[in-house]
Amino acid sequence: MVAGLFTRLDGKRSNLLERCRRCSALTVPHVLPPEGNDEDTALPTPYQSLGARVVNNLASKLMLTLFPPNSPFFRYDVEPATMAQLKQELGEEGFKTRIRQRLGMIEQDAQTYFEMQAWRVPLFRALRMVIITGNALIEFPEEGRPKVHRIDNFVIRRSPSGRVLEIITKESITKEELPEGFELEVNDQENAAQDVEKTIDLYTYCKWSGGKWSVHQEILGKMVPDSDGTYTEDEFPYIPLTWMRSDGYSYGTGQVEEYLGDFQALDGLNKALLEGAAAAARIILLVNPNGNTYIDDLQKAKNGDFVEGNAEDITILQLEKLHDFQIAFNQAQNIEQRLSRAFLLHESVQRDAERVTAEEIRYMAQELNDANGGIYSLMSLELQLPLVKILMSRLADQKKLPELPKGVKPTIITGFDSLGRGHDLQKLVTGLQYLEPLGPDVMRTYMVINDYIDRVFTALGVDTEGLIRSEEQVQQIQQQNQMQALIEKLGPEVMKQMGAAQGGGGQQNVQS
Predict the structure, then answer these.
(1) For residues 362 and 357, what is the distance between their CA atoms, to the nearest angstrom?
(2) Which residues contact 88 (CB under 8 A, 6 or more apart)?
(3) What is the total count of domains within the chain?
(4) Three-state DSSP class for residue 422
(5) Which of 40, 206, 306, 416 is a Cys-bridge partner for 376, taking CB atoms 3.0 to 4.6 Å apart?
(6) 8 A C-beta contact, residue 135 and residue 21
């Protein structure tokens, strides 16, 4: 039974779930709430908001980097052997342009489908979940929006090399949501009738064997009718996502867990500072019991009244802990700075100084982005590429994708690739700045301007097809500009006389 296998695999990761719940409690508690929670369960409340800020910031940065809005995050590349074959079939003249245009249309159709299906919302949820808990499972059903399964609602088993072998998901459904063709037994129907809000566990079992995935569903130990099926590697509708995973482990480790000590220390320091501030804010007056000042007279006195007494008889209770609070505050500030840098928060880029140059800010920002280069590579392999395969499979099923040669394969162009293009762009800009003292004449003589412009747009990720003029078009425009300048210099009458003279000379030559 799948339920028994789920329970057995789930029992082997109790410590992992406890760590993940602790990470969630310090950042975004509802991402992984306490065990046995429901809508009425009180969630933990951290004593700082930095955890939620840095997690949402990093998830947003990854979302924009991996899936830029209104721009394909992949392109089709043609292998050299396939390119040579297409060259023979299409002819040498302009065949690359035609191939690029056709592939560009397919990429744009895929991007349109991606946007229309509203996949960005669940993908953002998955990114935030994987940052906190290190694990997330994204399901792409044939109908409806993708589902994001929390780590406590699925189990996974991998081989020592990291190959996913088994996935089991657990979903709670109501009686009204039972699959068509599945009926409860008499005892189950009576139990469901007694408790209207009672849910039923639906298990989905996925197993990799023989080069394909076999999938089926079970409810109460019985197989759901018409739920079994097989998928190829490219068609498999599940993407198991991890943040960082060690060899031989089935589950990953999140970014928050890697800095869990700082989060716990910051939460403890903020709690102590908050409680100390609340204690310091209390106003307690001490009166000398042997003094001449009466408390009743002070309490009954109105504003501006005269009361007999001695000011030295009244004192205010103070904690005298300002220095100790300052130490705790400075330590909390240092921890916040470390966490902000680790999670690429904007405030961490600019140092605390009166004068900070723009070049310093740019350099520090680039350094922070470079620090996550490994994450970009991992997301490209575990998220973007499988997502492209699912996307292409769905388009092929809907007859919206033409059959492509085997040598045409998708390549991810965002994430780590865009980070590399950013370095190339900065090198081009820096090189041009070094050449500026030589003067424009030297630069025009030694530099191929068209090639430089093309490289700049390539580094920016902009398609230059139809955007940059060819050498022939540039020469024609230059000739037209020269002719226009000559007309403006000599005047239209002189140009007409020159044209008439050339025409007359031509006629005399013809007559002779």
Answers:
(1) 9
(2) none
(3) 2
(4) helix
(5) 416
(6) no
DSSP 383: I
Cα separation of 425 and 448, whole Å? Answer: 17
- In 3D space, the residue among 349, 320, 325 whose CA is nearest the CA of residue 274 turns out to be 325
pLDDT tens, the chain, 512 aa long: 899 999 999 999 999 999 999 999 999 999 999 988 878 888 999 999 999 999 998 898 888 878 888 778 888 888 877 777 777 776 665 566 667 777 878 888 888 888 888 899 999 999 999 999 999 999 999 888 899 999 999 999 999 988 999 999 999 888 888 887 787 765 565 555 545 567 889 999 999 998 899 999 999 888 988 888 999 998 999 999 999 888 889 999 999 999 999 999 999 999 999 999 988 888 888 888 888 888 888 888 899 888 888 888 888 888 888 888 999 999 999 999 999 888 878 665 555 555 555 555 455 545 545 666 577 778 888 999 999 999 988 888 888 877 777 778 888 877 555 555 555 667 777 787 877 888 877 777 777 776 777 667 665 656 566 666 766 777 788 788 887 777 777 666 666 666 666 555 544 444 44
Q: Judging by DSSP bridges, how do beta strands 164-173 and 212-219 pair with one another?
A: unpaired
Of 377, 378, 367, the closest CA to residue 342 belongs to 367
DSSP tag of 284? -
Task: Quote the pTM value.
Answer: 0.76
Last residue of a domain, one of 318, 339, 372: 372
In a domain, 334, yes or no: yes
Residue 421 lies in a domain: no
Question: DSSP code of 448?
Answer: -
E-state strands within 228-364:
229-231, 238-242, 285-287, 314-316
If you write DSSP's letter for every residue of 2-32 in order, what string do you get? Answer: HHHHHHHHHHTTHHHHHHHHHHHHHS-GGGS
- In eight-state DSSP terms, residue 74 is E
User: Would you give the DSSP letter of residue 418?
Assistant: H
What is the pairing mode between strands 314-316 and 135-139? Answer: unpaired
Which residues make beta-bridge pairs with 314? 287
Residue range(s) defining the domain that contains residue 262: 258-372
Of 341, 372, 403, the one marking the end of a domain is: 372
Report d(CA 298, CA 307) in Å as an integer.
7
| 174 falls within a domain | no
Residue 163 lies in a domain: no
